[in-house]
Known about the structure:
- By secondary structure, the protein is an alpha+beta fold.
- It has a domain at about 10-80: 2-Layer Sandwich (Translation Initiation Factor IF3), CATH 3.30.110.
- Helix content is about 30%, strand content about 20%.
- Strands 1-2-4-3 form a 4-stranded mixed β-sheet.
- Strand 1, helix 1 and strand 2 (about 30-35) form a beta-alpha-beta unit.
- The termini are far apart.
Amino acid sequence: xxxxxxxxxxxxxxxxxxxxxxxxxxxxxxxxxxxxxxxxxxxxxxxxxxxxxxxxxxxxxxxxxxxxxxxxxxxxxxxxxxxxxxxxxxxxxxxxxxxxxxxxxxxx
Length: 108
């Protein structure tokens, strides 16, 4: 039986609708590097919602998710784990919001 290829894909998160596309890609077995900055520039609240939804989905299927710096997250399908230098619990792997003060008008 032939297996479909596994891909590493870079995708932008530009709007909440992109979350469904990302879920499909993960269920297909692909590894994703997702740039969250486009959505974060529009809405911090929508970014938090998207990351929470993706984190819940990835955990429910046995995948892994982690932050890569300020602008990206990496998401892996079941069977692929992300190496972390420090031991962090899965709940703290990704902060609830991106750390971008320039997108938060009026914040100090």
